[in-house]
Design brief:
- The chain is mainly beta and 276 residues long.
- The protein is built from one helix and 21 strands.
- A hairpin with a 7-residue loop joins strand 14 and strand 15.
- The N and C termini lie far apart (39 Å).
Length: 276
């Protein structure tokens, strides 16, 4: 299900105030890309399997999980299905994911796709280094043979970066010195229900992300950022890094070159530029 873009922007900007922050009452976690703990996505295939690192959750249990998956150049899986649906965002390289007979459509960094449970497909990579963020809402994440395929009623989606539509977020008074862009990806914008978006922070923009949510998770997709909060001081986060919080919390991010972040949340957040 897609978000209503107008409703989402209203939901976000309705919490914008002249205040740049809210009182921190929640907890947070920050994981840089070089702190990831890597294993194999399919341990039975060993070195022939893509590498995998859970950022949150546990892909081997019945839980929602967000993970990084890396592929070697020339990787192509055999046709297969999964027991659960997943979402993927390309962080680095070129990825293809579709039914076995489809001509490859190489998706670069910033592209997004969904893979419904039970649908027969292949996954391939075509750059020297290939990295994605993969997210499931329940587990475990299993690879199963094509002859066990089934129709779960979902339709797969492949969106190259160039096909993604972005809209500007503005302050409640309709003024902004620089624009933060947003695109809705999945789910609901109602508070208490999960949804996923990507945001683009322009170069040099010092953003305070004020969150009020039981679940708030963010993965850096493109661009390096400098991160700080009331518990972390000036930590560099590269693509594949992760930060999250629960309750009311402020995340401050700055990128000299600009950055794209994926956000999964069941609450609300606002983005204001901090005082320079």
């Amino acid at each position: 299900m897609s978000l209503n873009k107008t409703a989402l922007i209203i939901a976000l900007t309705s919490v914008f105030t002249t205040s740049l922050a809210i009182a921190d009452e929640g907890k947070s976690v920050v994981i840089s890309a070089n702190e990831d703990n890597w294993g194999y996505l399919n341990p039975l295939r060993g070195e022939n399997s893509p590498g995998a690192a859970d950022l949150w959750g546990d892909r081997t249990t019945n839980s929602a999980t967000g993970m990084l998956v890396k592929f070697k150049k020339g990787f192509q899986s055999p046709p297969h299905i999964h027991n659960i649906s997943y979402r993927g965002i390309v962080i680095e390289g070129l990825m293809h994911n579709d039914t076995p007979l489809k001509k490859p459509m190489w998706m670069p960094a910033g592209s997004f796709w969904t893979q419904p449970a039970g649908h027969d497909h292949i996954t391939a990579a075509n750059a020297i280094d290939n990295l994605i963020y993969l997210e499931i809402d329940s587990g475990p994440y299993l690879v199963q043979p094509s002859n066990e395929h089934f129709d779960n009623g979902e339709t797969p989606l492949n969106l190259k970066q160039s096909d993604i539509h972005w809209s500007a977020i503005k302050n409640a008074d309709n003024t902004s010195s620089q624009q933060v862009l947003i695109t809705d990806l999945w789910g609901s914008n109602d508070k208490g229900k999960l949804g996923g978006v990507m945001i683009k922070i322009p170069a040099g923009y010092k953003a305070n992300i004020a969150v009020d949510a039981e679940e708030f998770r963010s993965v850096i997709i493109e661009g390096d950022i400098s991160y700080q909060s009331n518990t972390v001081t000036d930590k560099k986060l590269t693509p594949g890094s992760y930060f999250a919080s629960d309750g009311k919390f402020n995340h401050q991010v700055t990128s000299s070159q600009g950055a794209t972040l994926y956000i999964r949340t069941n609450g609300i957040f606002s983005i204001n530029e901090t005082i320079k």
